[in-house]
Amino acid sequence: MQIQFLGATGTVTGSKYLLRHGGSTVLVDCGLFQGWKQLRLRNWEPLPVRADEISSVVLTHAHIDHSGYLPLLVKQGFRGRIFCSAATRDLCRILLPDSGGLQEEEAEFANRHHTSKHEPALPLYTRADAVRCLESFEPVRWHEDFHPVPWLTGRLSHAGHMPGGSVVHLSDGKRSIVFSGDLGRGDDPVLRAPEPMPQADYAVVESTYGDRLHPHGDPFDQLAEIINRTSARGGTLVIPAFAVGRAQTLLHGIQLLKKAKRIHHLPVYLNSPMAADALEVYRHHRPELRISAEECEGICHGAEIVRTPDESRALNARKGPMVIIAGSGMATGGRVVHHIERFAPERRNTILLVGFQAGGTRGASLAAGAPTVRIHGQDIPIRAEVARIDALSAHADAAGVEAWLRTAPSAPRRTFITHGEPDAADALRQRIERNLRWTVTVPDYLQAFTLD
User: Fold this and answer.
1) Where is the Beta-Casp domain (predicted)?
2) pTM for the full model?
C-alpha cells in the first residue's frame, strides 16, 4: 500500500490523500485549495492520477476544503462511489451546488467588469456539475464496516467539528491507517466530542492549530462584549462565518445571551441561505449534537434569514445597530465580501473574525491589521474595529490533538502531520515527538510513502 499527499501540505486547504494498492486507488477527501493564488491555481492543474482510474472516494466531512473538488473529479471522468456519513452526504447536497453557483457568479462578475486576465473567465465547475456528482454519494453507518474497494475495509467514528465529521479507519487486513479529518474540540458548545482514536499502524493528523492553544474562558462572554460595544456606537457587527458549523454556533451563543439579557436588543441577520438550509441538517442529526432539542430549535429560529440577493443588498442600506452573519468564513467570497466593502470604512462598525484565517485570504489580511483589503478591483479602507474570538474555533488546538492521540491503544508506526500551515505543522510534529515519542513526518506536496 502506498499513500500520496495531493493536498493539505503546507496549507489548511486542498485535502486529498491517495491510497494505491493492487492496481486500484482510493482517494480520502477531495477538497479545493483556497487562499494564496499559487494554491488556488492547483485546482486547475491535473491530478497525478486520471479521474477514471480512481476507484472510490471516502470523505471525512463536508467542508469545501475537503469535498469541493468532487464535482470537478466527476466532470473529469470519475465513476466510483463516494462514501461518507449520512450527515456529510446531507451537507454536501447544500455545500457543493452552492460552491458551483458561487464560481459561476464570480466568473460572470469578472466577465462583466473585466477583472480577470482570462477572456472569458470560466468557473472551475458549475452548479449543474455539483448536482451531478451528488448521485455518486453512498452514506454509511457509524462504526459499521464498508468496502471502498474489495481489498479495503473502512469504518467511521465521530470526529466532532461539524455534523457528520468523521475519523476514517481503513485496513487491508495486513496494515491499517487512520485519518483524523478535521478534529473537533472536547468542549465545543454545540457538537459532541471526538471519539477515541482507533488502533492503526499509520495515522494522518490535522494540525490547523498545531502551534497554539485556545484561550481559556467563555467565548460567549467575549461575544457579548463585542456586540454591546458595537451596539453602543450605533454600529453594525459583520461576522464572516462558515455556513456550516460556525454560523450555527454563533446563533446558539447569541440566543443564550439574549435569553440571559446580556446583550442589547438588536436585530440579527443570517445572510446565508446555505447556513439556513444547514439548520435543517442540524435538526435531523441532533444525536450528533450535545445540545437539547429546545436549544437546537433556538439555533434554528434565532435570526432573520436573508434569502435573496435583493434582501442582501438591502442590508447594506440599513443603519445599525445590528448583527450580520454571512459567508464565507475567511472572506474569500460570498455575501460577506459586499458587507465588508460597505461597513469596513466606518469606525463605528466592527468586523469579527471567529475562525482560522488561512494565508492569502481577506480574513488573514484583516487579522494582520491591513489598512485596506482588495475587493472587486478596489482597495477598501479598514476603519472599522477588527475583533477576534479564537476560542470559537471548531478545531482542536495542539493540546486537544495530543489528548486525542493519547487515546490510541498503542502508537502508530508513523504519524503524518497535514492540514496546517508550515509553522503549525512543524510545531505539532515537535510536540508529538517530544511528549509521545512517536515517529512523525510532515509530508511535502505530492510526496508518496510506502506503508509496509
Assistant:
1) 247-366
2) 0.90
